[in-house]
Amino acid sequence: MEAEKALLQVQDDLEVRVREKxxxxxxxxxxxxxxxxxxxxxxxxxxxLNQMTRxxxxxxxxxxxxxxxxxxxxxxxxxxxxxxxxxDQDEDIFTVAxxxxxxxxxxxxxxxxxxxxxPIDQNGxxxxxxxxxxxxxxxxxxxxxxxxxxxxxxxRSMVLxxxxxxxxxxxxxxxxxxxxxxxxxxxxxxxxxxxxxxALGAQNAKLYEDxxxxxxxxRKTQMTVMRxxxxxxxxxxxxxxxxxxxxxxSPILGYTDLLLIHEKGLDEKISQYLTIIRTAGExxxxxxxxxxxxxxxxxxxxxxxxxxxxxxxxxxxELAKPRWKDIAHRKGIMIEVKTEPTDPLPLVEGLESExxxxxxxxxxxxxxxxxxxxxxxxxxxxxxxxxxLQVKDSGTGMGKQEKDRCLEPFFSTKGAGGTGLGLxxxxxxxxxxxxxxxxxxxxxxxxxxxxxxxxxxEGDEPVSEISHEMPMPASPMRILAxxxxxxxxxxxxxxxxxxGHRVKIAYSGAEGLKAFYDARxxxxxxxxxxxxxxxxxxxxxxxxxxxxxxSSDTPVxxxxxxxxxxxxxxxxxxxxxxILSKPPRMRELRRAVGDC
Length: 596
Hints:
This protein is of the alpha/beta class. The chain has helices at residues 2-57, 62-76, 104-110, 126-129, 145-152, 185-262, 268-292, 309-319, 321-330, 352-368, 400-405, 422-432, 486-498, 509-521, 540-550, 563-568, 586-595; strands at residues 81-88, 93-99, 117-119, 134-136, 157-165, 168-177, 305-307, 335-340, 348-350, 374-383, 386-393, 436-442, 446-454, 478-482, 502-506, 528-531, 556-560, 578-581.
């Protein structure tokens, strides 16, 4: 009997132990299951984080990166509302950078559009600005005005996670749910990890934007350098051409002066034509000089005068008349020119020939832009602190790419028929006048070009770059003229003899010196010597040196195509009393002879 009782006791003990062990195993299994669930949950979030990171890496702008992150949070983390705020440390404000798409009504109601400014202190965001993550299980228990409004919309739990890189806070990731206390510690940790990735992505996007801007700046700099190199090459070519062009234009200007001065009783129309020819010739000389100094400031030696732009319009229209009227009519093209002057109009400081040439170039351009005819409108006006000249046409217009490049030297929309220097010349002229050129154009809608000039000083009177007051001729003198260009010598001889001077011409430096020595031996020395600078075998410097060595009192005038350049650079040539620029002008010769 006792044995049976003992056996039953042992059996009961074994059952108790089995139940205890079974309970322990069940608890262990449950713990393992929980750990497995947590691991699976963590693994799922890690996969989600990696997936989000890969998606964000593919974005190169911050707005797109933020939008992707918020979309993933809404789809996979059950976030009811999310947005990204960027911090401005200097202004102490947050700016909405991106919002989610789940609750667009809230975005509209509360004005949470990208670019909206949110003050920090007024909305309880100071801790976030200092880099601290904030979790509010129920925002309805808080008393911040902005949070009260969100609570009224049904939102309860909120997490504010700083976007920080190396202790620098870039912004805040804001996420909200409608259920109180719905963000777990795991969710909170996940949002912090995500915020680190978003911050790194935002910094990389900013670096990419900075690199992109730097590349654009570099490209613009390269284009500027290329443009300057082209202009420098153009200046070098122009310098080589200046001498020949001056010599070719000299007879035109010189004989036109002689006709206007000494031919009495000329028909009024003929006199007008001669005046236009002389003005055009003067402009040709100015063009050559400007080509040599593209985009440089106007030399101080050039006199800027207050000018009337309304008068410039009339002159340019007359000078360009053969192009827009006569040539066009010969081709069967009808072009009408209208003027819209503003009167009274303040004066502008400038060089008359340059502004007139800029306007003529624009008229030529718009005439070419209307192959089927049309209307050219020339106008003046006042715009804020500027005075403007405007040329409009009803032509073919330009697209964006053409408009962006139209000021580049050698770029032309006319194909083989264009040089690409018209608008580039106008641009250079405006640069030298501290002005601005504005171009508006659309394909098929025509083009409007506006030249903006600073307003001149009050009280100035308009003056011309070229004074038309002719000095009186000096007393008759014996003059020696030396040049290797026969046409120029013939012109000089005619000019001087018209004023009663006796002139001896020589076709080289050596021949001129021989004539000078012979005249002194005969006791009839020359009272004035006029010599070219660039001549073969013996140039004007050598001629002046020998003449001054023989007779230091004999005045020497140096007449050269490089005259304006030497004058603007302030260079003095030894043994030379006066430097004049080719082509010779009657008034300048008379003034120089009188001074000598």
